[in-house]
Fold each of these.
Amino acid sequence: MEARKLIRERFILEGLNCANCAAKIEKRVSKLDEVKKSRMNFAIKTLDVEVDGDIEEIADKIAKVADEVEPGVKVRIKGRDSESQRELILEGLGCADCAAKMEREIGLLDGVDQASINFVSQKLKIKVHHSSYLDSTLKAVKRIVKEIEPDVIIREEKDESGHHNSHSHGDNSDFKAEFLRLGIGAVFFIAALLLKLNFWGELALYGIAYLTIGGKVLTKSAKNISKGQIFDENFLMSVASIGAFAIKEFPEGVAVMLFYEVGELFQDIAVNRSRSSIKSLMDIRPDYANLKVAGELKKVDPNQVKVDDIIVVKPGEKVPLDGEVIGGESMVDTSALTGESVPRKVRAGKEILSGFINKDGLLTIRVTSDFAQSTVNKILDLVENAASEKAPTENFITKFARYYTPAVVFSALALAVLPPLVIPTATFSDWLYRALVFLVVSCPCALVVSIPLGFFGGIGAASKHGVLVKGGNYLEALNSVKTVVMDKTGTLTEGTFRVTDIVPAEDFSKEELLELAAYAESNSNHPIAVSILDAYEGKVDSTQLDNYQEIAGHGLKVTIADKEVLAGNYKLMKREGVTYLTPKQVGTVVHIAVAGQYAGYILIADRVKTDAKAAIRGLKSLGIEEVVMLTGDGQQVAESVATELGVDDYRAELLPQDKVAELEKLLKNRGKDKLLFVGDGINDAPVLARADIGVAMGGLGSDAAIEAADVVLMKDKPSNLIDAINVAKFTRRVVWQNIVFALGIKGIVLLMGALGLANMWFAVFADVGVALLAVLNAMRITRMKSQ
């Protein structure tokens, strides 16, 4: 009987923070009957398994094991996210407080691992524990959304393109209708103020004005109360305005509703403008591709183009998919992806990425990845989904708003009832009026709208400067960085090595030494090996090679034409008992020995990046206390580069695992401050994952960088780290300006209202006026210039 084929899967363990727990999970999973092999990678939180059986059942068992060992860890199968998550568009979502309620209630549903509403882009992202929960969850989600905001239109993300323009026109027509409705109400209000009528005539005119202006608010409030949702802005405004009518303050009752509605309308316009401003920063999604079919061009959706298809990009068009240029030559604008203003030249044989804009020539491109895996799509997903990773300040404001409004409502009730019972001269109507002022002020919209808008604007502004930040939490964390650890090769230096000197020993020529080195390094793709092969320029006869052995941290041992050849650093020479020369020049040294005889050395140098020194200096000016460089190079090279750049400390001759160990030591000494590591995103993935904030250099198009890092610097320039921190600092400054401004104004007006010094007009300003100003202030982030 034929043996069953084993299934190989990779699981992502979200929330896994304990290395010891990871080892326990790996051990327990390996003991499951269906599991034949398991391997844990704690650095990138993955578990690779080979199983014999139903993968869904085994996934449930692994999830149970993980939760038992480290409660809270979520297990999902990599690459199957689409089966267990959905993204919905909530068209017409205009209330930030309502969005927070939806998010909270959806998050409590059975089977839901994560629910996150991005108020700015009007998107709801839901992730369930297993795909079997999805249908029932979506039904419950639609019910919750409709209960809280009946006018919101729910549709799936995949339908977005077809609705984009109509939605924009819909917004404009909605605003016109609102202005017309409020204008009619205002006419009746002004008539009631100017005409000298009796009580009933005044009541009739004020009543018509009030119902015209506030009818929508009253209806919403009634619906919400019937569903048990009492404490929202509609309820507060309804009670405040009806209370004003009850004490015969008709003008103020109508005025409160009028100015509230006008303020809300202007706030909606400002929020929409801010949304458009943020979305324009990321307007890099290509609309079409010119597909070459049988010699003719056909305009198609980029999703329809397959790998190895041929597309043509005309001058002025966006490059729709990643590929290789096979014909033509042109300058391309890369600023949409990298923030780099200087155009780049591309020609046949060069890689080109989606999102670039073709400036002048006609380019023919062979597609190397489909749209789902293209650079532009990855970046859009990163930036759009970044809002699901909320900053601590956002989480605090959401929690604060839940308790703030009920607290103020009950305070208003106490203010209306207690003083007339305790103070002999107090009148109920006077204290009721003061309580109504309290109610109007209490809505937390200024905070609930402007804070997420600020963080999302910060993420968008960072992307405009060529910096991808994966969430508001990382953007806020950048403010607390005091230690920066940087890899040398590819981060502070170009990472492009070249042979600068060949020094043979006696009985060897330069040509012989270089040939021996080239043969020894011919099976390696390390940059040092590539530089030696580039310098050799000859052809390597692989039939002469035998017994190839790589010695970690030392070099290579290989048999060439029946002679044992050593190629590596001084540690290899010491280990093998070979007497070697010590060069005086600074650089990476490759020593060569043949049959135990020293043959000489080859010196290889790497150039420091032009902006590296300025980057270190700029970080110091931003308050970074310590900059440490890690490298696998020798002491002499490390010391030379460290001195040239002005870093505070360095660690040399490190293997990849040594870098993690060194980082662990630095993490123990950091206290409450954050440690940031900058690496190339490929070889440094374990260190990137272990740092408080992992930053990948030149990660554009690199899966490893995007997977492991929290921040990606797309221009491959260390100075971009300064842009990232500046955006983070500016965002925090604006967010805290809004918090202090909103709470300060509300606090002052609440106190004035309690003392009888503030009327309804003050209260309306403290609500919608403050909210509008906070939104306009948050919009400044999107216009932030590079430092």
Amino acid sequence: MKIVVIGSVAAGTSVAAKARRNDETVEIVVYEENLDISYSVCGMPYYLGGEVESIEELIPRNPKWFKDRFEIDIHTNHHVTAIHPLVKEIEVYDKNSENGFRETYDKLVLATGSYSLTPPPFNLNTYENVFHVKSMDNTKAIDQYMHNQEIKKVAIVGSGFIGLEMAEQFKQKGLEVSIVELADQIFPKIDADMSYHLKEKLKENNVKLHLADKVESITGDRKAEQLHTNAGEDIPVDLVILAIGVRPNVFLAKDAGIALGDTGAIKVNEHMQTSEEDVYAVGDVAESFNLITKQPSYIPLGSTANKMGRIAGDHLTGGSLSFKGILGTGIFRLFDLTVGFTGLSYREAQQSGFDPVVIHNIKPAHATYVGGKNLLIKAVADRETGRVLGAQIIGPEGVDKRIDVLATAITFGAKSEDLFHLDLAYAPPFSTTKDPVLYTGMVLENARTGQPVITPEELVELQENQKVIQVVDVRSKSAYAKNHVKEAVHIPMPDLRKRAAELDKDKLTVVYCNKGVTSNTAQNLLLNIGFKQVYVLSGGNTNYQYYIKSKEN
């Protein structure tokens, strides 16, 4: 059997390696249109920022390594121009010899990846200082340009993973950085109230932000010298990075009549097989599906590409591996913050037909007496079943292990009450006695079974609509004097039992403390003595003040 793979970054090389591990007799041929293979796209910003010293560290494998280790023939600088499924042939153009030829296959794998978007008025062929950060060729070109030119001012268009990572790295190189983002928030993938913390971190590091804006025109002939935005801003630039997203590279598949999915990527089954017999698709070119909703999903990540490649390589050689879906889990660093997310947001849960309950949990990553710093966790569960649906976490430490624990729990269908029963590792330098994940489960379960929470956004909306509501601050006098929720009355927790008669049992009541622990005690007290509706303010006054500041900015 002869397997031909088109593309050799994460997914394509994973296909080839797994197929060889399973079967020594199969012939494996890979065609790659660029010179480099099996490189780390995710590491590119850190090389350009100087955190990775050598570009060779991002290219750990070459065709000779694959030939020696796996007896796999990888042909670089070879561009596949057409697929002919009926006769099981592809057309290939050798850019070295400038000759074309046909190649036969028994099984074909498309690992053609994705391509970066270039929005108007940008044109890569017109402006020599406008770049994507998608391929190793891009990275080398940016690196060379920065060495040959005096670069002081950089504009980044888009605030996704690459855009924010590039902003961090360029600031650490001492450059002036501006971000232009079409959405009204930084990193639109996460919720606006969580995105606020990213915005503040960028401002703290003197990154200039142009939100809800876009570049309308460019001054400059051969080089972009100034960007002019829809909002009337003029941004001087020496270098421009386009980071507004990618699309699946499906041109070969479309021309060959291979079916695309709802997301525009190639539609595949659980074994990565396409609509065309003996043709597979993996990586950024292939469609995924959401593990919770079972609906088509397109979230191109290197981790998913590697997984898809292994599954296809296994199935091609008689194995039984199958693709189980994704949660869209992601993580990145922004200066001294880490941002992690997995599963569905509150809005996505609603759109998927769930009745979601949402909570905010502010807890230290480990014991404060050994330097633990707070995490902000926003989590979502289904009100009816208790199934955990998603989470977003921001903090200076401990985000990675919590988001991975939550992603694992969601993958196996955990309910909110299950989180509390996880036997997680505890010692003061690493966690708290009730780990933030355990506490998240406690609060979610309480919120859906009779001890409800209300978000700052919901509370403000009620007040703005002049709903009859009483808000009770159970913190200390000094804390209340520093700042408090609008229209809140102050009754410290130690006085609440004897002063509860000052409150109306029939009114909708919201209690809050600094982060949420003491207010849960207050909620229990009031419910136990006959109050009808008592809500805890999600994340307490701390989260409320974050929300108010986000609206002011």
Amino acid sequence: MNYNLSRSASRHSKPLLHLLKTQTPKPKSPVFILTHHLCTNLSPNPNQPPQDDDTLITQVLQLLQPNEKDWNFDQLHTLLFSNSTSPSSHSVFHITRRLGAPSKAIKFFDYISENVGTTTPPGSNGLLSSAFQAVLELTLREPTSEKKLIKLYKMAKKRNVALDVNTAALLVRSLGTAGMEDEAVMVFNELDSGLKNTHIHNVVIRVLLNMGRVDDALKVLDEMLDPEAKFRVDDFTGDIVIGSLLRKEQKGRRVSVEEIVELVSKFGKHGVFPNSPILTKLVTVLCRNGKVSGAWDVLHDVMDMGGAVEAASCNALLTALGRGNDFKRMSELMVKMEEVGIKPNLITFGILINRLCKSGRLDAALEVFEKMSGGVKGVSAKPDVIIYNTLIDGLCKAGRPEEGLCLMGKMRSQDGCVPNTVTYNCLIDGFNKVGDIERGRELFDKMKEEGIPLNVVTLNTLLDGLCRHGRLNTALEFFKEMQRDGLKGNAVTYTILITSFCNVNNISKAMELFDQMLSAECPTDAKVYHCLISGLSLAGRMEDASFVVSKLKEAGFSMDNVSYNVMINGFSSKNKPDKIHEMIEEMEASGVKPDSVTYNTLLAYLSKAGDFKSAHKVLDRMRDEGIVPTVVTFGTLIHAHCLDGDIDKAMRIFRDMGSKSKIPPNTVIYNDLINSLCKKNDVEQALYLMDDMKDKGVRPNTQTFNALFKGLRENNLLEKAFQFMDRMVEQACNPDYITMEILTEWLSCVGEIRRLRKFVQGYPVSKTEAAGFKATEGKPAGFKATEGKAAGFKVTEGKAAGFKATEGKPAGFKATEGNANII
């Protein structure tokens, strides 16, 4: 419609209509065309069918295209409210919204409000609600709309606009989004009770939760959970409440998972259950907080109450149960899933197989795999490459790489899965671990033939296998080959190589690799530095070790206890007290607390230097720091006092171990004390310590007996010697050349060569059948006699193996004036 023509027709409508009554124009004349046009557009015949909404909307919008100051309200009235009819709410809503500008929409709303009730039939008040909703939507498009929302609401109240549910929900939601939750609650509270349905309740609950007003939201929820409530909770309510409370960024009071579980139970009584993502998240949060039993209960409650539970929620619980190796409940959950019709998916089987493999239950994992492939009561999930790799890795770690290799063949032939880099890495590592390095290399070559990408893990796996089996040069050549092919090493690569060369004391090659790592600007970690520092320190190359320490700090890493301890030990062996002091100060300044190894190292250094006063001060400080002295601590001090000849001080420390520290002494401590006592000719005290060892269950070794035999020889306590020779036989403690030197010299002088021969053959010497032995065909129990020969000794023509009998003297000794001397 032409706008100017419409405005003219409106101005002269009455004369033209009067003319039509007095004069009938000829058909097709200009007057007929004009009057027909005006009549059909402005004064529709009430007997004709009502105008189509889309046509009316188009006509009104064309009329309202100009600025609102130029609107022709007469024509507008004729279009909308002629013959006591009124437009539909649908028409009013779309006309208002399609006006575009909020100012036009408000003007149109004002026009509607002035005509509703005066020119419209009863029940037309919904037009205002529709117009107001459109005004609201247009206003919300503006950047500063939040300042106008309350004004609009007050305008609506002033005009007695009866908000419908959609308009009220939009207003409440918009106010909440604008951070005006008080105003949103006010609008909600002022709504007619009949409008406060479930939807509007859900909107206000979401607004309150988003603004952190948790307790207010829960109060609104309580109204809906009331058994007498007119409008109750629905699925959206549950998703809004449980989903919001589970969010990490939830504002306001943090609601405990126990409270959330209780809410799930309350919802369940109304037949409302969390959807799968929310239930899965709740189970995950409970498990992450160590409440696996709570997760178990809530999941089973939902299933028992008839809630729809999917595999994802069960998978979350299975994962947590697997971490705790709770295979009993994992099995029970699988049975429950079957009972309620929850089909396990690929992830379900993956979780089961992964946990079984990690716990070493490979056969059970393979059983699950076979059931999965064959279908579990109608449920079939085709295994993918991840599940195959999990099983292959488990088999290889368990030392069963051949089975892993067979599984890779099945992977190709039956399920059409293509092995990937991980598959081959697992197999190569598996064969390396069982010592079949060549098989690992064959797999590597096959991997290259098939075009499967190599990665640094492949490189490191092969290098580790070669180095573990002592093939360091081959490992180095292989590394160089890979570098030429463009595969660069990482921190793990260099750590493997540097550690291996340090272990064989090839420090020069280790340093060469370290320099190569630095020049290649390879990303490193602290481990490679710590490893090299340890190797250099143990080798006594303290200047090189200090250089590596400086590089470690340049790389942004820090020294740890182990590195400080090996450096202190290295400087101790080089007798560098200034450097030791420097290390201790740096250690404390960097916040690394000395541990028992640090203190024991210092005690050993001070004791060796004869500075016992300082050593005991270190021991006192060690205790003050709350570090419990170990057997090494006391052994260090006892050894030092024994070397210093102060056996009394050593014995006091020994007694303090039992009375104050309650730390049992070991064989090394007894050996030091017995040796020192025998040197002091205090054999009686040494024999007491031998009995004390027996009482405390500390097993003597060859050095213990050697020390005692020396003391017994000096005091010619022959019968005691025979008793302890029997004790050596009883405990299968083999004599060494020192034992034989002591006993041969002594017993040959006193004419007891026969007993010596019996001792060498493994027979008791103090009596025919020593206590604790069962004689079988004349052979003592505890020794395996073969043709009259004692185990570990070869007797030839009555001569002890390893000795050449010459005039009754054992081989290996030169008899000079009756005394055997080591040749």
